TrEMBL record, chain A:
Protein name listed in UniProt: Sarcosine oxidase subunit delta
One Pfam family of this chain: SoxD
TrEMBL record, chain C:
Keyword Hydrolase carried by entry: no
Species of origin: Ruegeria haliotis
Keywords: Oxidoreductase
Domain of life: Bacteria
Cross-referenced PANTHER family: AMINOMETHYLTRANSFERASE, AMINOMETHYLTRANSFERASE, MITOCHONDRIAL
Record-linked InterPro entries: 2Fe-2S-bd_N, BFD-like_2Fe2S-bd_dom_sf, FAD/NAD-bd_sf, FAD/NAD-binding_dom, GcvT/YgfZ/DmdA, GcvT/YgfZ_C, GcvT_C, GCVT_N
Protein's UniProt name: (2Fe-2S)-binding protein
Residue stretches making up the SoxA A3 domain: 476-557
Family: Belongs to the GcvT family.
Entry-linked Gene3D superfamilies: 2Fe-2S iron-sulphur cluster binding domain, sarcosine oxidase, alpha subunit, N-terminal domain (3.10.20.440), BFD-like [2Fe-2S]-binding domain (1.10.10.1100), FAD/NAD(P)-binding domain (3.50.50.60), Probable tRNA modification gtpase trme, domain 1 (3.30.1360.120)
Location of the GCVT N-terminal domain: 575-846
Span of domain Aminomethyltransferase C-terminal: 866-948
Length: 85, 454, 956
């Protein structure tokens, strides 16, 4: 169980959070991209062996959605959201 | 003649316990005579013969030949799916110039970490026949590979605690019946009779038990034996298994097609490369510039101390979120929900683990005094629609089998269908719904039966 | 004679408090402070166990959690299985049995297995028991395995609990290194949490006779413990094992029998700034023929029994070593009056300080113990000179051996920090830390006291590795793993067959897979593999160290969280009324427990449901709609937010009006359905299905916070701030009037899909005209504190109209009759709005909203669609099971759809249903077939609405 840095509440147990998936590319204008580009946007997420940027929701806390960089090999949080430290 | 002899013995000895032993000897004798491969036949006789020579003459289960610089097919990953694919390429399609490469030890990936539940209680037309095939292949695998898989067709029993779950399971039941997979509802009394340790879930419990569902096709076996049996049989047909041979990248030719792989032991060329490396699929395919709809997740399991036989079926509690079976050594082998987030760490999430244990104790209160002996994690990749992917990718000659969570039960049929795809360049009918093509128009396969605890 | 091996004095036992106990049915006596093992040794009990596979007689080998041989099962109040006898504190009335043997370890029927040993080498079962199938042999094999019986009952009294703790420093182990670290951190004012698995602090010092600054080392320990006790910033636990080291420095501690009333065990979840691993070292066994015979013990354990428990496990002792540590053992034995016949030292030269320690004892250098005589009782040791081959038999009744020491690196390794093989120590030691942790003391490879505590006196370690004794011609099995009966020949066989990775060896032989996780033997397996393959140990590597360090009861892990703590349930203020009125309550999604139906005495489900449905269709009914997810959205950007969120247009709503809508995910799957009301210009109320409320909340917050942070929308969950009684049926307006309200209820003033604020029965209320039943409905929303009162008044006011409470079963029937969507039933996989004949909800006008592009893309793909239809079973009295497949002609082949719902329609007086069917919209009037296991049910395909198709009633 990780300690996730919340910008409002400080470091809190992972069990207070809900995982919100990796950060993907910005949503393209659906009327301006090809089918293949749209499908890629929807289905392809970064899956690195290393730091991944991802969203967590402090659902059982303050309700903040936050973004961290976390190393998928070690679970070290390599970059915390602004104001959390 | 031997068949006749066996039949006579069987007929004569019916319902007599001694017949088991007699038949065993006859069978082993028959097997001894009928050696067809280069493998040394494993049997009671060979065991006895070797015992007399101090077990000094057992041959290698598999060779360690030098790595060549070219093969017809390279399979990356000496796990269940990789080894089964190599075996089927040789056995079913006569392709024996195959190298299976693994960065670690053979059978060291998820096949070393799973909870050995073999079943076919899925919900979709796309899935059920594949798993029915896989279960039946598993049942014959000991004989086929001449390696005791310790297959124990011991039945899985679902403990149903909510009405929506029951509705879903009844739906599965009726579709499964079309494909010859069995699923029967039993009463709570019958459920408790079959699983005496199930003393929780009474009328006043948080989630009272409604009924049970029985899947008699389900079984467990010995996971290491599956890896070793496939490795040994594939090796005997000429397939080469190279351990400690890490593939670093995939090589594409000028035409974009696959040309081989770069390894820590040098370059290996092949016109067909199979990626069977659960969890690390994208790590490899990214080196060929390929993007796949896969993410790597962690799933954990744990075992109790060994105790005397207590539960002789696989117990699955989907509403509570755990399942277990008792191994032949006596350990309760227990699994629960997957962790959140992407991970290559093979970690234990204490909170997820505690939830699993707690829900187990709610139904099996006597387990409070049972002790945890070992726990571990494994990583697997999960596709965008949570169903497996088996296909030739947009890189010609590059094949992937991925997105299997709970893929252990899929190994025999997965190997067969992938070998078919590699050999014939077209999907096997049993896996035709699981190609990458489905994502082109977002035609997801939404399966409910993917992991045991769901 | 009672306690024949007990020394006249000495030991940390209370000789004034004798303790009676039973072992395998015989009565013995020991003392307070004994373990079961020390008491058995004191009583001269030699054979205490039988081995797992060969059923060889075994005695006690170790003195702590490393014990590989003697596992016992405790009876009665303490009942638990597979406990190393060395870790069971003795108490009055204790009753223990050996596992794995029958009738007793002294005479064990399965001992016959020893004769067949050669036929059952490692992995034999992979080669046989294949025909006719394993399942046939399984029951017998399972019975043979399994050690102790499974617990039959939960503890009869007491409970488990869990606690959180935060520490600047967590110290695992209260031996000299751990105590020293605790003192330093404690004095520096840090929050210290120190936990030790033993019942007493001191670690190895408990077992040894050492001095610190000239004083007995245990005095130093007592002073340290005393000082720590006085520090408010220090938590010091004994009998508490740090068993797991998780990510982000979370460690789990299992505290047994904390001195607190009814708590059996306590689980501590400790989050530590820094972790100090001071777990000491474990002695490893020497590997030689018959090294498992009763009377062959770890040298340090012999020392521990003599010093700590005042027990001499033998009278004539031979010691066998490759390092200096046994010379101190010899000295302690001599001091205790035990005869040390000889020390066999595999090293050619022994450091002088070691020899000085053991003055007067014969030391055979360059000599090994090749084997032993004695089956159930050790009689002699076969000493063989490694150089000359000269051999001699030395009579003795105890052999203490030391193959060196392994830093106890389990926790270190669990932290994912790597190990390296240290050639000087011949052991794996901690390398660079992967988390904020450090190893100290013996765990870090500082194996002697002088390196740990200033002023500590100790012999230097000085080891020359000997991974196994290999004397030609010596017969007998040399065990590497006593618990799983794995011998050198098993490892050799594994290697011979190509199972040459250390993980293969472990799995093929099962070495190290026992309850002790190979604490004494794993390193020898690695050494044997290295020798056999001719590679350094570093290259062989270790197998993975997995949690737990020692077994932990599931009760302690679970704490007090079973049942409704883990799955809390939600209920409304009407729950008590429901129970009082005979409702059958059950789980209804999102942890709500709701009434399913309200049977009258003697009434079954169907009769009750028919009665409730008829009331709604012909009179009036009321249900508690409180669990529906409700959100209030405020801000000037709510309209465009809702237009993005829902597939239809919401922004055009006028204050007071509402609209039904669908929420899609961006890949075009239906996320939820519900209604949105505009309360005023910038305030909206959104309601969702009960089961999806949390998911929708997450979805909305994620969009707002991560995609549109500059949009002014504030979301407040008000599910529990509003409760409602929904009055429905043709007489609903009459009931409303009877209740008394200041709201004009006429359809003109208060039309369908609008709301009005006012009072109902004198209670402030928001009344909403939505309908999930197809009838005229008033959803009366009030604050929860008024809900019970409202409900009572509704029942009272409705009584003249025959009002009935309606459960979720009837709600299901009523919505099916109307063809209203239920996500859990009709939305299956990739079903879209068009499949549900709800194309109107997919806005053409809006250029973009969630899911629009994906739904279009999916439909362009041209895959066959399964579309929602109504079904009428050919036999009107034939119910079709929900979930039943539809196949062509009812044949046993791939399905073309499924029945999503089938209910007895009170208005049609027949079974009607809904189904998803391939190209169903074009097949109205045709016949399709339900395939069941025992037959085929023809059904007529119809429009999915069986009551009031024009929706006049709900608008009335």
């Amino acid at each position: 169980m990780m300690l996730i840095p919340c910008p409002f509440c400080g470091k809190r147990n992972e069990s207070e959070f809900i995982f919100g998936g990796p950060v993907v590319a910005a949503r393209p204008d659906p009327n301006a991209v090809s089918d293949a580009e749209w499908v890629e946007y929807l289905t392809i997420a970064p899956n690195p062996l290393g730091p991944v940027q991802e969203k967590w929701w402090h659902a059982r806390g303050c309700g903040e959605w936050l973004t961290i960089w976390r190393d998928t090999r070690t679970h070290d949080i390599v970059e915390a959201p602004n104001g959390s430290e | 003649m031997f068949v006749l002899l066996r039949w006579i013995t069987q007929t004569l000895c019916e319902r007599k316990s001694v017949c088991v032993r007699v038949n065993l000897f006859i069978d082993e004798f028959c097997s001894l005579i009928n050696i067809v491969t280069t493998m040394q036949k494993y049997s009671l006789f060979s065991l006895a013969r070797n015992a007399l020579s101090g077990h000094r003459n057992w041959p290698l289960a598999w060779r360690s030949p030098p790595l060549k610089d070219q093969y017809e097919v390279v399979v990356i990953g000496a796990g269940g799916h990789g080894l089964a694919t190599a075996y089927c390429l040789a056995k079913e399609f006569g392709i024996t110039d195959v190298a299976v490469l693994d960065r670690g030890w053979l059978g060291g990936g998820n096949i070393a970490r799973n909870t050995v539940t073999i079943r076919s209680n899925y919900m979709r037309d796309e899935s059920i026949p594949f798993y029915v095939k896989s279960v039946s292949m598993y049942e014959g695998l000991t004989k086929e590979l001449n390696f005791n898989m310790m297959h124990s067709k011991r039945t899985m029993v679902d403990v149903v605690q909510t009405w929506p779950k029951l509705r879903e399971l009844r739906r599965r039941q009726l579709v499964m019946d079309i494909y010859g997979s069995t699923y029967e509802q039993i009463t709570t009394d019958e459920l408790r009779r079959r699983i005496p340790a199930l003393t929780g879930g009474g009328p006043d419990a948080r989630l009272p038990i409604i009924c049970g569902m029985v899947h008699t096709d389900a079984g467990v076996n010995r996971h290491d034996a599956v890896a070793w049996g496939y490795a040994r049989a594939a090796d005997a047909m000429g397939v080469e298994i190279h351990q400690q041979t890490a593939v670093q990248s995939l090589i594409r030719g000028a035409d974009g097609a696959i040309e081989g792989v770069e390894t820590n032991q040098g370059t290996v060329r092949a016109k067909k490369v199979v990626v069977a490396v659960s969890g690390h699929t994208t790590t490899l395919t990214e080196t060929a510039g390929l993007k796949l709809p896969l993410r790597t997740m962690n799933l954990t399991a744990f075992v109790s101390e060994p105790v005397q036989p207590l539960v002789d079926v696989i117990v699955n509690c989907p509403d509570s979120g755990f399942y277990f079976s008792q191994s032949d050594k006596g350990e309760m082998v227990i699994g629960g929900a997957p962790d959140m987030g992407q991970s290559f760490r093979r970690d234990i999430k204490q909170n997820v683990f505690e939830d699993t244990v707690t829900s187990m104790l709610s139904l099996f209160p006597s387990f409070k005094k049972l002790k945890l002996m070992r726990q571990w994690g494994g990583h697997l990749d999960i596709a965008h629609d949570a169903s497996p992917i088996m296909d030739q990718t947009e890189v010609p000659g590059l094949f992937v089998t991925a997105g299997w969570w709970g893929g252990y039960k899929a190994i025999p049929a997965g190997g067969l269908t992938l070998a078919h795809l590699v050999a014939k360049d077209e999907p096997h009918p049993l896996m035709s719904s699981f190609t990458l093509d489905r994502f082109r128009h977002l035609d997801f396969v939404m399966e409910a039966g993917t992991t045991t605890a769901r | 004679m009672a306690q024949s091996n007990r020394r006249a004095s000495g030991g940390r036992i209370d000789r004034n408090r004798p303790v009676r106990f039973q072992f395998n049915g015989k009565s013995y006596e020991g003392y307070e402070g004994d373990t079961l093992a020390s008491a058995l040794l004191a009583n001269g009990v030699r054979v205490t166990a039988r081995s797992f596979k060969y059923h060889r007689p075994r005695g006690i080998v170790g003195h702590g959690p490393e014990e590989p041989a003697t596992l016992v099962e405790l009876d009665g109040e303490d009942a638990s299985g597979n406990r190393p006898a060395t870790t069971v504190p003795l108490r009055d009335g204790l009753s223990a049995r050996s596992v794995n043997c029958w009738p007793s370890p002294d005479f064990d029927v399965s001992g016959i297995n020893q004769l067949f040993a050669r036929f059952i080498p490692a992995g034999f079962y992979y080669k046989t028991f294949k025909w006719p199938n394993w399942h046939l042999f399984e029951p017998t094999i399972r019975k043979a395995a399994g050690l102790a019986a499974a617990p039959a009952q939960p503890p009869s009294s007491g409970h488990f609990e869990a606690r959180h703790a935060h520490a600047d420093v967590l110290i695992a182990g209260a031996g000299p290194a751990g105590l020293q670290a605790a003192l330093e951190a404690g004095r520096a004012g840090k929050r210290v949490f120190i936990a030790d698995e033993g019942t007493e602090a001191g670690g190895s010092l408990l077992n040894r006779n050492l001095t610190i600054n000239g004083q007995p080392a245990m005095d130093w320990v007592a002073d340290a413990v005393q000082e720590l006790r006085g520090m408010g910033n220090v938590t010091h636990l004994q009998n508490a094992t740090v068993w797991a080291y998780r990510e982000h420095n979370l460690l789990i501690v299992n505290e047994r029998e904390p001195e607190q009333g009814s708590v059996l065990e306590r689980s501590w979840r400790v989050r530590a700034g820094e972790v100090v691993i001071a777990t000491g070292a474990t002695e490893r066994a020497m590997v030689f023929a018959d090294n498992d015979r009763p009377g062959v013990m770890l040298a340090s354990s012999v020392q521990a029994y003599v010093n700590r428990w005042g027990v001499a496990p033998g009278q004539r002792v031979v010691l066998f070593t490759n390092n200096n540590s046994v010379y101190a053992v010899a000295a302690d034995l001599v001091a205790a009056g035990v005869t040390v016949e000889a020390i066999l030292d595999s090293r050619d030269t022994v450091p002088q300080e070691a020899l000085d320690t053991a003055q007067g004892i014969t030391v055979h250098t360059g000599t090994v113990a090749a084997g032993v005589k004695g089956h159930k009782r050790l009689r002699a040791v076969h000493a063989v000179s490694a150089k000359s081959g000269a051999d001699t038999w030395i009579d003795c009744d105890l052999l203490g051996h030391s193959g060196g020491w392994n830093p106890t690196v389990h926790l270190w390794s669990q932290s994912r920090s790597p190990l390296r093989f240290d050639e000087d120590l011949s052991a794996f030691v901690p390398d660079a830390a992967a988390q904020a942790c450090r190893a100290i003391g013996a765990a870090a490879g500082d194996l002697t006291l002088d390196r740990i505590v200033q002023g500590g006196l100790d012999l230097p370690y000085a080891i020359e590795p000997l991974w196994r004794v290999d004397v030609p011609g010596q017969r007998g099995k040399a065990f590497l793993d006593l618990q799983n009966d794995v011998s050198v020949s098993d490892v050799q066989l594994a290697l011979r067959e190509g199972y040459d990775n250390v993980e293969h060896v472990k799995r093929y032989t099962t070495g190290g897979m026992g309850i002790d996780q190979g604490k004494t033997g794993n390193i020898n397996i690695i050494g044997t593999v290295a020798m056999q393959k001719g590679v350094p140990l570093q290259d062989v590597g270790t197998t993975t160290f997995r949690s737990p360090y020692t077994p932990v009861s599931f009760g302690a892990i679970g704490g007090l969280r079973e049942e409704s703590v883990l799955f809390p349930y939600r209920h409304t203020p009407v729950t008590q009324w429901n129970k009082d009125n005979g409702a059958v309550m059950y789980e209804a999604g999102a942890r709500w427990r709701r009434p399913g139906y309200f049977p009258k005495p003697g009434e079954g489900l169907q009769e009750a449901v028919n009665r409730e449905c008829l009331a709604v269709r012909e009179g009036v009914g009321v249900y508690d709609g409180s669990p529906l997810g409700t959100f209030e959205l405020k801000g000037r950007d709510v309209p465009r937010f809702l237009d993005f969120l829902y597939s239809n247009v919401m922004s055009s709503l006028k204050p007071g009006d509402g609209r039904y809508g669908l929420m899609l995910s961006d890949d075009g799957l239906i996320l939820d359905d519900g209604v949105a009301f505009r309360l005023d210009e910038h305030r909206w109320m959104v309601s969702t299905s009960t089961g999806h409320a949390d998911a929708v909340n997450q979805h909305m917050e994620k969009l707002l916070q991560t995609e549109f942070p500059d949009w002014q929308v504030m979301i407040t969950t008000v599910t529990s701030q509003w409760n409602n009684a929904t009055i429905c049926g043709p007489r609903a307006r009459d009931v409303m009037q009877a209740l008394g309200t200041d709201i004009d209820l006429s359809p003109e003033a208060f039309p369908f899909m609008s709301f009005r604020d006012g009072t109902v029965a004198g209670i402030p209320a928001r009344v909403v005209r939505v309908s999930f039943t197809g009838e005229l409905s008033f959803e009366v929303n009030v604050a929860p504190r008024h809900m019970a009162e409202l409900w009572a008044k509704v029942m009272e006011a409705g009584a003249p109209f025959g009002i009935l409470p309606v459960g979720s079963e009837s709600s299901h029937v009523l919505r099916v009759e109307k063809g209203f969507l239920s996500l859990g039933h009709e939305v299956d996989g990739t079903v879209d709005a068009y499949d549900l004949s709800m194309g109107w909800v997919m806005s053409k006008k809006k250029p973009d909203y969630l899911g629009k592009r994906s739904v279009a893309l999916r439909r362009e793909g041209g895959s066959t669609r399964r579309e929602l239809v109504g079904i009428l079973p050919g036999d009107p009295n034939r119910q079709v099971p929900e979930g039943a497949p539809l196949t062509l002609g009812g044949r046993k082949e791939a399905t073309e759809g499924l029945v999503t719902a089938c209910v007895w329609s009170v208005v049609n007086e027949r079974w009607v249903g809904l189904a998803l069917l391939e190209n169903g919209h074009a097949r109205h009037g045709e016949t399709a077939h339900v395939r069941l296991k025992d037959g085929v049910i023809p059904i007529t395909i119809a429009k999915p609405v069986f009551h009031d198709p024009d929706g006049k009633l709900l608008r009335s």
